[in-house]
Amino acid sequence: MKYCKQNPMKKNIFVTGSPGVGKTTLIQKVLDNIPPGISSCGFFTNELRESGIRVGFEITTLNGLRGILSHTRFKTKHRVGKYGVDVAGFEELVLPFLHSEKTQIFVVDEIGKMECFSEKFCLKMAALLDSDSPVFGSIALKGGGFIGEVRLRKDVEIVLVTHENRDSLVPILAQRISRMLL
Predict the structure, then answer these.
(1) In Å, how far are 31, 73, 122, 147 from 158, measured between CA atoms?
(2) 43 Cβ partners below 8 Å, 6+ apart?
(3) Would 137 disulfide with which of 34, 108, 125, 133, CB 3.0-4.6 Å?
(4) Would you give per-residue pLDDT tens digits along the chain (182 residues)?
(5) To which H or E segment does residue 11 belong?
């Protein structure tokens, strides 16, 4: 358990690692391995590809709604590299599903530069991190501002995902989260 120190005081768990290491897949596999019937809400971020080339990122909520977070063709003032970010569309899609009433666990993939263009998202995330329900998700490997604030919280555990450990982390994190929820 070199990469995943268990600390019962830390109820919020975020995986981090290099792009393409498998953070989203790891989160999905962990969720597949927790007991059924757990009330969850949140979202996943996935790459959008055209002819094998990444052109943006798509958001998918846990209940199946989809929207485009960023795209190379978006002409917006909010940019990360070659991607224009649709902050208003992101807020409209995601924020209604991040509510604490009857939710046992929040899934947030990810807290990254694009998502943090939304001040409303950052405020909602701060409230969720302070709530009684755990937050499980991914966070950018580097970053200041809100990303840095989350990484420094005493109730947040950061788990480094590598190609070598990603598969072995699934049962460890699934067991840890199951224990928190039951």
Answers:
(1) 17, 33, 18, 12
(2) 59, 60, 61, 62, 93, 94, 97, 107, 108, 109
(3) 108
(4) 334 445 556 899 999 999 889 999 999 999 999 988 888 999 999 999 999 999 999 999 999 999 999 999 999 999 999 999 999 999 999 999 887 678 899 999 999 999 999 999 999 999 999 999 999 999 999 999 999 999 999 999 999 999 999 999 999 999 999 998 88
(5) none
